[in-house]
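Researcher: Next entry: Acyltransferase family protein (Pelagicoccus mobilis).
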Amino acid sequence: MNISSTTCKQQAIKARQGSIEVLRIISALFILLFHIDQSPYKNISHSGLICFIIISIVFQSKSANKTSARDYYSKRITRISNPWLFWFTAYLIINISTQKPLFPQSHGIVNNILTGPWIGLWFFPFILITSITIFPIIRSLSKTNSAIRIAFYSASTLLLLTLYSTLKATTQTPWPQWLRALPSIPLALITYELTQFKKQKTIPTASLTAFTALSCTLLAPSLTTTYTIATSATAIAFSLEKFKSAKIYQISSLCLGVYVTHSIYIKALNKVVPSASSNFAAVFAFSAILSFLGAYILSKTKLRLLIT
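Model: Predicted structure:
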């Protein structure tokens, strides 16, 4: 490793918050657990994906308030579209080589593109469109009072929860996934507002958790567990005292790689060892080890920017 790359790595570690990186790792494991068919913890483990979205939007909000529109859009589009296009192509090749349908959840060309040849790829166009959309919202509200912004984001959360409850059973992939994830966007923007509080953070964090739990219970009961865990976990992680760890960052930087590859290991394990399907804990443990190991190996190749 040359001096330049070492400096970049040190700067990346310096810019990270240890508690957030720990939460990223836990969230990646939760997502893996969610995609194990026999897992009995679907609602709990789905909070991992919501945590990822909230964390991503909080950092994007910070960027939106500090950079120009040109720099913001250029960075976000490149950062998201490159891995999306690569893994879209990779899963097409995998499906062809294994003689599976190109788009297993085929519901028309638009849905196919937004879902991808592996259903987990829906996340990339979702977060890309979200990133593009939130910038003008954040900028247009930047001169208003924080309380007004929080009120606006809270109302948006209620609207999106209602939308989810109304439309979830009438749409095809990837729209149920999008509808399920959309309320996390305004909740993430509220979380960002809370990160700007300099002193008292316990009451705001508890208030956000209570608001999420009550709103979901009243408007979208099936999301209550998932969202309450996710919003409370991220709010707490952002409120903790900052600490930095190169080892934690090294592991957390593999989480995107774990996300885009874990289904390969789960399916391979179930196929090679059919009896393993009856023991979700074993499938989870081996898949987690293989996913992180595989992501680590890829991180040492030219594919590093597509999985970190």
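Model: Note for the record: Residues 105 and 119 are 7 Å apart (CA to CA).
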